[in-house]
Amino acid sequence: MGFARTCSVALVGVEGVVVEVQADLEPGVAAFTLVGLPDKSLTESRDRVRAAVVNSGGAWPQKKLTVGLSPASVPKAGSGFDLAVASAVLGASERIDPRVLADIVMIGELGLDGRVRPVRGILPAVLAAADAGYEQVVVPECAAAEAALVPGVSVLGVRSLRQLIAVLTDEPVPEEEQDAPGRPDPLLAGLRAPGTGETTGMHGLGAAQHEPGHDLADVVGQRAARTAVEVAAAGGHHLLLEGPPGAGKTMLAERLPAVLPRLGRQESLEVTAVHSVAGLLPVGKPLIDVPPYCAPHHSATMQALVGGGPGIARPGAVSLSHRGILFLDEAPEFSGRALDALRQPLESGHVVIARSAGVVRFPARFLMVLAANPCPCGRFSRRDALCECPPSAIRRYQARLSGPLLDRVDLRVEVDPLTRAELTGRGARGESTETVADRVREARARTAARLAGTPWRVNGEVPGRELRHRWYAASGATEEAERQLERGVLTARGLDRVLRVAWTVADLAGHDRPDATDVALALQLRTGIPQGVPAVVGAPV
């Protein structure tokens, strides 16, 4: 009788559970039994592993073989257990010393020829192994850079099962044939989920990385909207841009990612883990260090936005835009159920999806930008009467964005149509992205110094109770906002969000605490009601 064990990782969302893979050989009729709650793709590993072992020069044991995946109560899915199953079988048949395998975590799919193929979720799987105390992992060669992002773990990247056997048995490591330069690598096939390419808006990569020509100086006029974009970037505040087509709403949203600071180390690991599970990591760039930008089409379903789908839940747009921007263009055209499903992640910063196979939790701390036309024809405004939509149609159209959802949006700005003078004028251009980004970084530094030792990173995350009892505005600065609460213009949540925005305005202006001007500008950006202050951060009254 032969017995061996090694380890792999089962992913539940972006969280991993270390699974012990045990192989037991007993006398009897040759059979291969796989137990431990495997799914269909994992059950098929019996044929893949057998062919890979034989084609790698190994002898398949002609005995009763049982492979167990423990703990048996955890659902296990995917082909990432192939390498661990093959190693355990070889250990049980004494081709490999079983003692060598016991403390190694192995992740990878096996081809029939013995080549090791990458799988999705390498980074969160290695993170789970490190958290469980394991120090050695074996991954596909092309995913070794991703696994090496986890500190304190020794990573071995192998291209084939033959190479792994040679390393574990102290034999000469064979050279594997490399594909010719310029040819597509077949080992990377299947990593990217179908229908998630860059043209779909679901790729989640930083817009600053792909569109270096986008600059805020290209936006003509729109002083209030530019101020709102700067405040949103500095404090992580959700933003609604409402105006007619062609006024610049999409231009502003597309330039917002370049204003955001680059991600820190921990934030980069969080974002990379989500994109790794979704199969959306850029080729040759294992670590995402720019804020992601996700712009799904308005026909996206609720599952596409918040995550889900058949079988094991997959991350949706809110998770792909974690620590970045979720841009919903033509927001009233989205499904009402899909939009209202955003309310919970907007408050909590994560998504919990319950399925019969288990509960999955994805991070979803994003900055939401909504762009909306004022009416079905898009020409309704306070300045002219070009709109021909009946009042009832305007009310129905604007009601597609529910009150509870809008109450969670900190900044609401009306983007007016451009005049001929603004569009054709040759005056000074607006501030560049670089100039605004410098101010945003300075404001974020002030915020970080104030919030040091707390679980919050930006003002948009600070609970209202903390703003009322720990960080005070200047004396008398909030009187007008409190009056708006009494009049019913603001809800209690709305007042808290005005205070958050006021702190961001103060950080941008270099004030120690919000004064009456800062609160007035925050109130103006929240309600759209003029408060007698210029729509410029830090400008005098």
UniProtKB/TrEMBL annotation:
Keywords: ATP-binding, Nucleotide-binding. Residues 235-419 form the AAA+ ATPase domain. GO terms for molecular function: ATP binding. InterPro entries: AAA+_ATPase (IPR003593), CHLI-like (IPR045006), Mg_chelat-rel_C (IPR025158), Mg_chelatse_chII-like_cat_dom (IPR000523), P-loop_NTPase (IPR027417), Ribosomal_Su5_D2-typ_SF (IPR020568), Ribsml_uS5_D2-typ_fold_subgr (IPR014721). SUPFAM superfamilies: P-loop containing nucleoside triphosphate hydrolases, Ribosomal protein S5 domain 2-like. The keyword Cytoplasm does not apply. PANTHER family: COMPETENCE PROTEIN COMM, MAGNESIUM-CHELATASE SUBUNIT CHLI. This is ATP-binding protein. It comes from Streptomyces nodosus.
